[in-house]
Design goal:
single chain; mainly beta; OB fold (Dihydrolipoamide Acetyltransferase, E2P); 5-stranded mixed beta barrel; 1 helix
C-alpha cells in the first residue's frame, strides 16, 4: 500500500511522465484464468516474496503456455477496485516463462 501511494503521488501520468514500470523474475504462478468475450485477456494469481497478487494481462492470453509454473514479469502497479475488492494488482506489460 505504501508503494502504491508513492506511485500515485507521481501523477498525473501521460506523455512525458509514464507510470513507473517494474520487473520481477521467477514469480510463482498459483492460478490462471482466461477472460473476455474472446478469452483474449489473462488473469494470474501470483506469489512474490510471500505475498499474493492478481496480475492482469490484457490482449496477451495467446502468449500463455500451459503448465507454466514460474514467470518473469514486466508490470505497473495499480489499485484494483473490481467488484469492490480494493486490492493492489499488477498490470502486465509483458511476461514470459522463467528459464529456471
Amino acid at each position: 500500500e505504501v508503494m502504491l501511494r508513492w506511485i500515485n503521488d507521481l501523477e498525473p501520468y501521460g506523455q512525458g511522465n509514464p507510470r513507473p514500470a517494474f520487473a520481477s523474475m521467477g514469480v510463482k504462478v498459483l492460478e490462471t484464468f482466461h477472460m473476455g468475450r474472446e478469452q483474449q485477456h489473462l488473469r494470474l494469481r501470483v506469489e512474490m516474496n510471500g505475498a499474493q497478487f492478481t496480475a492482469l494481462a490484457f490482449n496477451q492470453a495467446d502468449k500463455w503456455q500451459p503448465n507454466t509454473q514460474y514467470v518473469d514479469l514486466a508490470y505497473t502497479v495499480m489499485h484494483d477496485s473490481f467488484r469492490g475488492k480494493g486490492a493492489i494488482a499488477l498490470r502486465l506489460l509483458d511476461f514470459r516463462p522463467s528459464e529456471g
